[in-house]
Amino acid sequence: MGKRKPPPPLPEPLPGLVDAHTHLDSCGARTPEAVREIVDRAASVGVARIVTVACDIGEARFVIDAAGWDTRVSAAVALHPTSAHELEADGVAEELESLAADPRCVAIGETGLDWYWLGKRDDVATPEQQHTSFGWHIDLAKRLGKPLMIHNRDADADVLADLDRFGAPEVVIFHCFSGDASMARECVDRGYVLSFSGTVTFNNATDLQEAARLVPDEQLLVETDAPFLTPHPYRGTPNESYCVPYTARFLADLRGMTPEHLASATTENARRVYGVTS
Ligand SMILES: [Zn+2]
Questions:
Q1: Domain presence at residue 5
Q2: Structural domain contains residue 9
Q3: Of the four listed, 21, 25, 136, 183, which is most buried by Cβ atoms within 10 Å?
Q4: Separation of CA 165 and ligand 1 centre (Å)
Q5: pLDDT digits (tens, 9 = 90+) for 9-52
Q6: How far is the CA of 100 from the centre of ligand 1 (A)?
C-alpha cells in the first residue's frame, strides 16, 4: 500500500466564495472543534460559507448539528440514491422530514439516481427503490419550498424523466454536474442550476468543460464534493472546502471571465438558491 498523499497547499485567496456541496463528516470533522478548523481554513482563502450534505439518516442528523455549531455552515438533508432503501425503514421518512424542515437545512439533497454502482456493490438500492426515493424527496422539496439537490450518475435521461413525471420543484441544482454540452443545454433551458466540482479541471474532461462554458452566470455554482474529486493538479489527494478557489479560477479562465466576477456571480446564486444572507 502506498503512502497517503499530502493535502494540496492553500490556494491564493479568492474572496467571496461558497462551497455549494461538501461532506464535512467524510472529511473527518465530527466535532464542533474539527468543523471549525475546516471552516476556518476555508475562510482563510475566501470560502465564506459551506453547505454540508447528508447521504443517509445518520449523516442527516450530523449536518443539522454541524450547521448549529458554526453559523458559516448550512445543511442539506436527504438519502443518497445508493441508500434509497433506507426510506423503507421504520421512522426514517418521518425523521428525515423533520430534519429537512429545520431552518438550518437549506436544500433537499443529495437525492437522484445512480446507475453506476448497480451490479458493482451489493449494498446499493435497486432502480425501483431509487425512483421511489427520488420521487419522495422531490415531493418533500416542494412541500417545504426548499431547493432540490440532485446526484446524477450515468442517469441523465432518467433523472430528467423523473423530474417531469413527479414535477420539478422551483429550484433544482445538479450537484457535481457530469453531463455533456447537450445535457447542460437541456438543464439550462429548464432553468436548473449547475454546480461544478473539481472534475471540470481534469485533463480528460473536455465534454464537461464544453458544458461549463455554456451555462449562464445566473445558473452556475462551484463546489468541492470533498473529500472526493480534488481539482487538478492535486487529483488523488484529500479534498477540502479550502480547495474551492482552484476550481473557481479554472472555471473563470474556461469561461473567459475574471475569478472575482466568477466568485461574485456564484456566491450571489448560492445566496439566492439556498436563501442564505452571507
Ligand atoms: Zn456529495
A1: no
A2: no
A3: 21
A4: 24
A5: 999 999 999 999 999 999 999 999 999 999 999 999 999 999 99
A6: 17
- Asked whether the beta carbons of 132 and 126 are under 8 A apart, the reply is no
pLDDT tens sequence across 88-122 = 999 999 999 999 999 999 999 999 999 999 999 98
Going from the Cα of 110 to the center of ligand 1, the distance in angstroms, rounded, reads 7
Rg from Cα positions in the chain: 17
Instruction: Give the per-residue pLDDT at 3.
Output: 63
- Whether 1 shows a pLDDT value over 70: the answer reads no
Contact (Cβ atoms closer than 8 angstroms) between residue 154 and residue 183: no
Q: How far is the CA of 239 from the centre of ligand 1 (A)?
A: 12
What φ, ψ does residue 223 adopt, rounded to 5°? -150, 170
Cα of 173 to ligand 1 centre, how many Å? 12
| CATH code of 72's domain | 3.20.20.140
253 occurs within a structural domain: yes
Residues facing 114 on adjacent strands: 153
Distance 111 CA to ligand 1 centre (A): 10
pTM of the model: 0.96
The range of the structural domain enclosing residue 129 comes to: 19-274
Please give the tally of structural domains in the chain.
1
Q: Residue 68, by phi and psi: left (phi above 0), alpha (psi -120 to 50) or beta?
A: alpha
Residue 50 CA to ligand 1 centre (angstroms): 13
Domain assignment of residue 63, yes or no: yes
